[in-house]
């Protein structure tokens, strides 16, 4: 199954640990966006879309869907034109300004993946609101606890 | 749309509905060929244990559905004519938003037709495969449910020796 | 007067230019610059480039850059190039975030790839920050049942 960062909002306690961990891992720029509201926070990161609009909009084919590994960024093909950022429906693909604008996007900690490690945000989350299991376990929990859904 | 009602007290957890669902959503539509299909056909109904009681769970086809709200490309939309939450694979970008949004865990990623597996009430079939397959009649269509309830009530009255 | 053959005159077709910054990012000397001001993305480039590279031309996704080898200087324009494209404002916060041309191209691409016609979804006309906000509200709204 294709991996993506599954966020279980019912578990998020807005502690910002994922954001801090991501920032530390990726040299001071967090690829995970944390949107704080009055009584909740939403961690947003690249959703590794299967038919990704960013990949479809890239004129150089620098963003491709890699089987079993989400959307891959091929840096050598990138011309830093910034079109991908305009196409992302969730605003989680960003251009970091600079002489050569850089792409900032969650790649599920690819470097760590190659070493067999989990993304830092998943490891850091104290309530396991973040996971990589494509909703399998979360779906099971949601189905098995019908009492947890108050009927209003 | 006719709703599928679950008489969960009857469920024995045999998973016949899950199997029937997989076969109904396989390429061949036949049990023996479906077993060999790769990727394996996906199910859209789930039998789960809740408080030691098994029960089938199905997409509720919510009126104000969280999955429809979370879809950025309107691949999931409420169909006015059928009353179903309809999935249009051609419009789907596979962003997994609906998977995260469904409060019942009824949408799972898929690799076959489109990018998600969600109950479509067996398009083109008279009765959904799960309802047909259920040996204990846990899963029943709305009108059958009312029929059965009435018959049950009458039987109880007769048995108690106080016919109306 | 003749100049070395390596000199090239830069031609930019503003009608083809989308307003991305691939050329500016590609130039090793950073001779092509751009800024967003007063509702326009304004580009500046020298008329003549002394380099022998073709990176700006190769990077352009719209084939708007043409390089012409310079043999003779007579009749050549040395005026620096300047062209601008109107910016698109975010529907929610009114901040400019990309050019109108890029947004129109996105709209056409979405129509062709997923059949999403203009105005059917709210996010394409919003800036990345507002898209994040919209998305998080949508997801929180969905999660209101199991909070």
From TrEMBL, chain A:
Keyword Ribosomal protein: no
Gene3D superfamilies named in the record: 3.30.70.20
Domain of life: Bacteria
GO molecular function, one term: 4 iron, 4 sulfur cluster binding
Pfam family, one: Fer4_11
PANTHER family, per the entry: PROTEIN NRFC, PROTEIN NRFC HOMOLOG
Protein name as annotated: Formate dehydrogenase iron-sulfur subunit
Protein source organism: Desulfacinum infernum DSM 9756
Taxonomic lineage: Bacteria, Pseudomonadati, Thermodesulfobacteriota, Syntrophobacteria, Syntrophobacterales
UniProtKB/TrEMBL annotation, chain B:
SUPFAM superfamilies the record matches: 4Fe-4S ferredoxins
Keywords attached to this entry: 4Fe-4S, Electron transport, Iron, Iron-sulfur, Metal-binding, Repeat, Transport
Single GO molecular function: metal ion binding
Pfam families: Fer4_11 (PF13247), Fer4_4 (PF12800)
Entry-linked PROSITE patterns: 4FE4S_FER_1, 4FE4S_FER_2
Keyword Membrane belongs to the record: no
Domain called 4Fe-4S ferredoxin-type: residue spans: 2-30, 50-81, 83-112
Protein name: Carbon-monoxide dehydrogenase iron sulfur subunit
Organism: Desulfacinum infernum DSM 9756
Automatic annotation (TrEMBL), chain C:
A Pfam family hit: Fer4_6
Highest taxon of the lineage: Bacteria
Alphabetically ordered keywords of this record: Iron, Iron-sulfur, Metal-binding
InterPro entries from the UniProt entry: 4Fe4S_Fe-S-bd, 4Fe4S_Fe_S_CS
All residue ranges annotated as the 4Fe-4S ferredoxin-type domain in the record: 8-37, 40-70
An example Gene Ontology molecular-function term: metal ion binding
Classification via SUPFAM superfamilies: 4Fe-4S ferredoxins (SSF54862)
Name under which the protein is recorded: 4Fe-4S binding domain-containing protein
Phylogenetic classification of the source organism: Bacteria, Pseudomonadati, Thermodesulfobacteriota, Syntrophobacteria, Syntrophobacterales
């Amino acid at each position: 199954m294709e991996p993506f960062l599954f966020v279980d909002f019912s578990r998020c306690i807005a502690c910002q640990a994922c954001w801090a961990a991501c920032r530390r891992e990726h040299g001071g720029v967090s690829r995970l966006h944390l949107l704080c509201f009055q009584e909740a926070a939403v961690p947003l990161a690249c959703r590794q879309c299967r038919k990704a609009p960013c990949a479809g909009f890239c004129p150089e084919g620098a963003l491709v869907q890699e089987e079993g590994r989400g959307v891959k960024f091929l840096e050598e093909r990138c011309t830093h034109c910034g079109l991908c950022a305009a196409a992302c429906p969730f605003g989680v693909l960003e251009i970091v300004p600079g002489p050569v604008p850089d792409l900032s996007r969650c790649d599920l900690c690819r470097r760590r993946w190659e070493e067999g490690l989990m993304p830092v945000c998943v490891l850091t989350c104290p309530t396991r609101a973040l996971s990589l299991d494509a909703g399998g376990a979360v779906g099971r929990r949601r189905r098995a606890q019908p009492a947890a859904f108050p009927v209003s | 749309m006719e709703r599928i009602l679950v008489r969960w007290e009857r469920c024995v957890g045999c998973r016949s509905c899950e199997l029937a669902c997989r076969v109904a959503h396989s390429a061949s539509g036949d049990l023996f060929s479906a077993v060999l299909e790769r990727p394996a056909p996906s199910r859209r109904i789930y039998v789960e244990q809740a408080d030691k009681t098994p029960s089938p769970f199905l997409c509720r086809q919510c009126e104000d559905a969280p999955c429809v709200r979370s879809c950025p490309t309107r691949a999931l939309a409420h169909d006015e004519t059928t009353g179903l939450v309809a999935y249009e694979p051609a419009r789907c970008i596979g962003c997994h938003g609906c998977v995260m949004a469904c409060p019942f865990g009824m949408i799972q990623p898929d690799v076959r037709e489109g990018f998600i597996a969600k109950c479509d009430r067996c398009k083109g079939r008279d009765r959904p495969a799960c309802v047909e397959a259920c040996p204990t009649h846990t899963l029943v269509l709305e009108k059958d449910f009312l029929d059965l309830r009435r018959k049950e009530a009458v039987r109880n009255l007769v048995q108690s020796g106080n016919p109306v | 007067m003749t100049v070395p053959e390596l000199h090239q005159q830069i031609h930019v077709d503003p009608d083809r230019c989308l307003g991305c910054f691939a050329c500016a990012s590609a130039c090793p000397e950073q001779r092509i610059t751009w800024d967003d001001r007063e509702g326009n993305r304004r580009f500046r480039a020298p008329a003549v480039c002394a380099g022998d590279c073709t990176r700006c031309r190769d990077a352009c996704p719209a084939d708007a850059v043409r390089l012409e080898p310079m043999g003779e200087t007579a009749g050549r324009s040395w005026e620096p190039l300047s062209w601008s494209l109107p910016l698109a404002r975010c529907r929610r916060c009114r901040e400019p975030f990309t050019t109108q041309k890029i947004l129109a191209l996105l709209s056409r691409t979405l129509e062709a790839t997923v059949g999403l016609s203009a105005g059917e979804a709210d996010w394409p006309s919003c800036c990345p920050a507002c898209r994040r906000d919209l998305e998080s509200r949508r997801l929180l709204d969905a999660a209101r049942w199991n909070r």
